[in-house]
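Q: Here's a chain of 410 amino acids. Please give me its 3D structure as tokens.
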Amino acid sequence: MIKSDLNDKCIILTTVSFPYGNAETWLETEILFLAKSFKKVIVIPYKTEGKLRAVPSNVILVKDFKSKFILNILRFFSSIKRCGFLIRLMAIDKNITFLVLQFWWALTASAWYKRIENLLKKETFKDVIIYSQWFNGCATALALLKSKYPNVKTIVKCHGWDVYEDRLKIDFYPFRKQTIEKVDKVFAISDDGNSHLASIYPSFKQKIETIKLGVFDHGFCNKKNDFNVLKIVSCSYLNNTKRIHLIIDALSYFNNTNYNIEWHHIGGGELQKTLESYAKEKLNNEGVTYKFLGNLKNEEIRELYANNFFDMFLNVSSSEGIPVSIMEAQSAGIPVIATNVGGTGEIVNNQNGLLLDKDFKPYDLYKIIASVIDAQEDWIKKRSLSRKHWATYFNAEKNYKKFIEKINLL
């Protein structure tokens, strides 16, 4: 599927947990392209809890970062020089919460700096790229490393919470200006994220570029069935940002109606028990059935889409980058109804699905879902347009090849 084009470069990728656990699922695809393009791929996850996912043979895992991180915190004075430099850049006109955030950010950056520098000293690299998957404290560490090791290439990717300040309810992120100034490139996964950063840091907009994620073509399209049931699927982590309770509220209007509705939700999280209880309370009519499927592997989601028909995919988040879950749904030809937040408008439109206002009311969503039954021909057209949109803009082969080409030119 992926043509091998190995070069002599090494790439060091820092993550939150990939390849452990269930998070950062897009990296399951991206790592295949990195491994086919670089002689050695070193992955440093912060957390190593959960099941280890399969990675190519030339991917080397550094598993001890979290313990080293804690050790660096305990031995704060051993890294006071780096922390001190960052602390001098702290915005002291903010409230105590933000000051604490900046101080923690400085400690995190210092710990990442030390771990990556030790790796650079230990290994003999002909050419190396250091790649932070998030615009977090590790990205700041890359800026510090770039100052000391100017020949090392440093890149940062940013998604949703690490782009938009309102996700953390702050005015601005710590040390962001200094980080963008020093690293070689910042890749946003959406045009909206790109524009947001460029509007705040216009003098560095030439360093910020959009590179969208993507999913593979799995060779099937979700097929229409003949059953008189409206089937809905959603896929997200169960937290406050994803607002799954609004789906439950919307579906509750179908109680005591003649509609037959079936809703499947993919994904677990901290609110799973709460939302299961809420659904049990609100969806108490036989005409509305639901299933919380928990965390599924990518291949299990694809199998679900291949073997079960769905009329629509729902995403009602208050904030997003561009969800990979929507890409997967579109690749299977499932129309998407989603809130117009972040970069979602770059993948969903009123031709291939439908965009909701961010502050929609559950009754509005109920009316839209009910209208699908009366507009079958329009929604059949949306199915083919949905898959076409994925093929044009979110095909993994196209997007990751473009990404590899760009970082090789740094």
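Q: Can you summarize the key feature?
A: The first helix runs from residue 27 to 37.
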